[in-house]
């Protein structure tokens, strides 16, 4: 990043030049987290949910208690896969 403006101070017969940083908060955060895969885990989890949705739907029997039990079993399987 090249500074566009400088702060100029004269202190005891010395000239001090300091760059004025005019970085937006978004650019500062992006620079701080550049190289990190912030959404990768979330995207992979979502993909697993999509892939397993068919298997979970095939377990639906019409009996609410049985369906709830099957749902809990499938959720535990997904958690173990993570």
Concise synopsis of the structure shown:
The chain is 56% helix and 17% strand. The protein is α+β, with helices and mostly antiparallel strands and 82 residues long.
Calculate Rg over CA atoms: 28 Å
- Return residue spans where pLDDT drops below 50 for at least 5 consecutive residues: none
Biggest pleated sheet: 2 strands, antiparallel
Helix content: 55-70%
Topology:
Elements: E1 5-11, E2 14-20, H1 25-33, H2 40-58, H3 64-81
Antiparallel strand pairs: 1-2
Descriptive report:
α2 runs antiparallel to α3. The chain has helices at 25-33, 40-58, 64-81; strands at residues 5-11, 14-20. The chain contains three helices and two strands; from the N terminus they run ββααα. The longest helix is centred in the middle third of the chain and has 19 residues, at 40-58. The protein is of the alpha+beta class. It is rod-shaped and about 85 Å long. It has one domain.
Structural features:
82 residues; alpha+beta; rod-shaped; 3 helices
């Amino acid at each position: 990043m090249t500074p566009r403006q400088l702060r100029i101070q004269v202190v005891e017969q010395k000239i001090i030049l300091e760059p004025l940083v005019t970085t937006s908060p978004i650019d500062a955060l992006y620079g701080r987290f550049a190289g990190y895969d912030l959404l990768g885990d979330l995207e992979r989890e979502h993909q697993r949910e999509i892939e397993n949705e068919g298997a979970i739907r095939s377990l639906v029997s019409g009996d609410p208690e049985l369906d709830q039990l099957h749902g809990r079993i499938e959720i535990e399987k997904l958690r173990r896969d993570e």
